[in-house]
């Protein structure tokens, strides 16, 4: 019986590193480690600057919006419209109508919501065909 074949390796030549190459490699490693922290700080500062510039742009837009809102109050028509809408004020000779909810708490919209949609359509068609008489 034969013995299994053995793998034979050719002798490798040993790679020799000169002293200058080793020194240069060590120097590059030290410089890389020394500047890595400074680069991290630089990129963090750049990100912070970008964030602050975006915040500043947003603040400028807000200031412009508020300035425009303040400028609207110089227009007397705008002031009158706000007085009507917010305070219910009217000019001399005008009438003010205020809608008051019904005392039973019901609303016409609530009553209409209880009726099926097809009955609402039929009712509106019948009303259109036969409008109520005006007194």
- What class do helices, strands and sheet pairing give? mainly alpha
**Could you state the order of secondary-structure elements as H and E?**
HHHH
Count of runs of 4 or more consecutive helical residues: 4
Q: Uncertain spans, ≥5 residues at pLDDT below 50? A: none
Give the N-to-C terminal Cα separation.
128 Å
Beta-strand content bin? under 5%
Report the biggest beta sheet as strand number plus sense, adding barrel if it closes. none
Q: Give the overall silhouette.
A: elongated
Radius of gyration: 43 Å
Helix content: 55-70%
The whole-number mean of residue pLDDT values reads 85
Q: Number of DSSP strands? A: 0
Describe the structure.
The model has no long low-confidence stretch (mean pLDDT 85). This protein is mainly alpha-helical and 135 residues long. The protein is elongated and about 120 Å long. It is built from four helices and no strands. The chain has helices at 19-72, 76-87, 108-114, 117-129. The N and C termini lie far apart (128 Å). The longest helix has 54 residues, at 19-72.
Please name the defining characteristics of this protein.
elongated; mainly alpha; 135 residues; 4 helices
Which SSEs are present, and which pair or pack?
Blueprint: H1 19-72, H2 76-87, H3 108-114, H4 117-129
Task: Sum this structure up briefly.
This protein has helices spanning 19-72, 76-87, 108-114, 117-129. The protein is mainly α. The N and C termini lie far apart (128 Å).
């Amino acid at each position: 019986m034969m013995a299994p074949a053995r793998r034979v390796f050719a002798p490798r030549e040993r790679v020799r590193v000169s002293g200058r190459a080793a020194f240069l490699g060590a120097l590059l490693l030290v410089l890389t480690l020394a500047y890595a922290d400074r680069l991290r700080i630089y990129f963090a500062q750049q990100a912070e600057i970008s964030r602050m510039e975006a915040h500043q742009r947003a603040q400028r837009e807000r200031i412009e919006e508020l300035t425009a809102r303040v400028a609207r109050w110089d227009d007397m028509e705008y002031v009158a419209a706000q007085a009507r809408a917010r305070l219910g004020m009217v000019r001399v000779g005008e009438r003010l109508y205020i809608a008051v909810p019904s005392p039973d708490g019901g609303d016409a919209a609530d009553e209409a919501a209880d009726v099926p949609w097809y009955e609402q359509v039929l009712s509106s068609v019948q009303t259109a065909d036969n409008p109520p008489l005006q007194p």
